[in-house]
Every structure is written in C-alpha cells, then in structure tokens.
Specification:
Length: 289
C-alpha cells in the first residue's frame, strides 16, 4: 500500500528538473549552473523544505500502525509541495523549465512528483567523492549528539523507507558511522529509484566534472537546456557556503581518515551480510569517463 496522488497535466507545456543527491554533494552549485540556462528557473531547496522526520516514513512497501497514522499528514505536506510548484509553473512562459535541487527529493517527495508530472520531468543524479562528503559532514558536526538541525532534516537509517539497513542501531554507532550509514542509504535509494522508474530520464553526473566547461556543456545538452555566457563564467566557481560553520564547529578531519572509516564500515557490512550498493563515488573522478 502506498499513498496515491491524483495526476495533473495542466502544465504540459513546461518541463521540470529535480536532483537526487546527498547533502554537501554540490546541489547548490548545480542550482546556480542550471539557473544560467536561457529557459530555466532554478531553485535550491525552496519552501516548503519537506524536512521533518515523519515525512521519511513514506513511501514504504509494508505499512505499520505508525506509518498508517502519519500517512494523511504526510500526503498533505507532499500535496502542498506540488501545489507550490504548480503556482510557479503558472507564471512561467510555455517552454520554460522549473529546476529544483533538493536532497529531500529522494527522501520525501519524489513519489508525489512522479504522480503529478510523470512524463514531464528529468532527474540529475549528482554524486561527489564520498570521503570528501563525509569529511564535510563531520566538520559541520552533523550527527553529533545534540545537533538539533540533524534531527530536523535527517531521517533515521532504520526508518521503514530505508534502502540499506545500518550495521547496528543508531545509538550504538558513533557520528562517523551514522553519517556513513546515511550516505550509503542515500545511494541505495537512488539506485532503487532507477529500478522503480526506468522510464524517467536520469542524467548521472559527478560534482567534480562540473568545473569543466566542456562537461557542463555536455550536461546541458543531455538536459535539453541552452547555456549562456554566464554558464561558463560560473563553471568551476567554488561556493564556500559552510566555511564559517566549519570554523565554528572546529572539528577538522582528514580525507584519508574518512576513507578509512568508510572501508571499515564496508567490512562490517560484509561480515553481517548487508548488501552495499555499488558506490562509484568512492573512486576519484576520471574526466575521461
């Protein structure tokens, strides 16, 4: 059983672009790039933000009493997100494109988008070298005990909607392993999406590739959008959005240590028989691919 949303085709002249990504994978930069395209209106994590732990209960293959109790408010919140997007589409010209980069998309509202815009949207699956993502998360203090923002936007890796179970209960895992469990599950959800929605056009891209004007042009061609002079000015431009926060937290870690922790987590998964999805983002970026 899953929540079913009525379909809507009244914005048939406009396309939409969404992103599948974890936090700190470059979605804000992607939004900036998309916003330079001639026909694109780009938004990064616009309201409603779709965070809140209860949202992560759905969709789920098998309902429990808890998921049944939250299904109605969850459906209302997802419909509010759809209505907000529709209002933006109503003021856009025919042929213009709505683009939203939001790591909550794969966690909480991709099913509502599929129900309402099933033949109108394109997805960018955005990845970044995983040790770098983990390093950034740890330096921001995410999953640290008492970190309130994490509790708001993050679901538990033991949530019913998860794709990959953690190696232990979240209380037994330190902040590194909690982050790793979450990141692996995000990739599991991404691969589940590819399997469940084979007709949805998906462009897979590494953040590292978007510093190259040639590869940015290739991405735009795949999305069917038109680059401008501003596109290539922005290509490779670093967005230092969290530098002050990292300095405030004051927990620097090395990329090598993050890589070691990820491999240690993989070893625990193997011993426990937990199937880990293929993580191409563990490999350094190769521009020839």
């Amino acid at each position: 059983m899953r929540v079913v949303f009525p379909s809507s085709l009244d914005q048939a002249l406009n396309r939409l672009i969404f992103s599948i990504n974890s936090g700190r994978a470059g979605s804000k930069y992607l939004s900036t790039l998309l916003g330079t395209a001639k026909e694109v209106h780009s938004f990064h994590e616009p309201a409603p933000d779709m965070a809140g732990r209860y949202v992560k209960y759905l969709p789920v293959k098998r309902h429990t009493l808890k998921t049944l109790l939250v299904s109605l408010p969850v459906a209302r919140k997802k419909l509010r997100k759809v209505e907000t997007i529709k209002k933006k589409l109503e003021v856009m010209e025919p042929g213009e494109i709505y683009a939203e980069t939001n790591f909550q998309y794969i966690l909480s509202f991709y099913d509502a988008i599929e129900s309402h815009f099933h033949d109108q949207y394109h997805v960018v699956l955005m990845r970044r070298h995983l040790p770098k993502v983990l390093k950034s998360w740890m330096e921001l203090g995410w999953f640290r005990a008492g970190h309130r923002p994490t509790r708001y936007w993050c679901y538990s890796a033991v949530a019913p909607s998860r794709a990959v179970p953690p190696v232990a209960s979240m209380r037994e895992l330190d902040s590194f392993d909690q982050c790793i469990a979450y990141l692996i599950d995000i990739e599991g959800r991404a691969q589940r999406f590819l399997k469940d929605f084979p007709n949805v056009p998906v462009t897979q891209v590494r953040l590292e590739s978007l510093s190259s004007p040639e590869l940015v042009r290739r991405l735009f061609n795949q999305l069917g959008i038109t680059p401008t002079k501003e596109t290539f000015k922005k290509a490779g431009e670093v967005i230092w959005a969290r530098t002050k926060q990292k300095k405030k937290v004051g927990r620097p870690v090395t990329e090598d240590y993050c890589r070691q922790r990820i491999h240690q987590y993989f070893e625990r998964c193997q011993r426990l028989g937990i199937e880990v999805p293929h993580l191409s983002q563990m490999d350094p970026f190769d521009p020839r691919e």
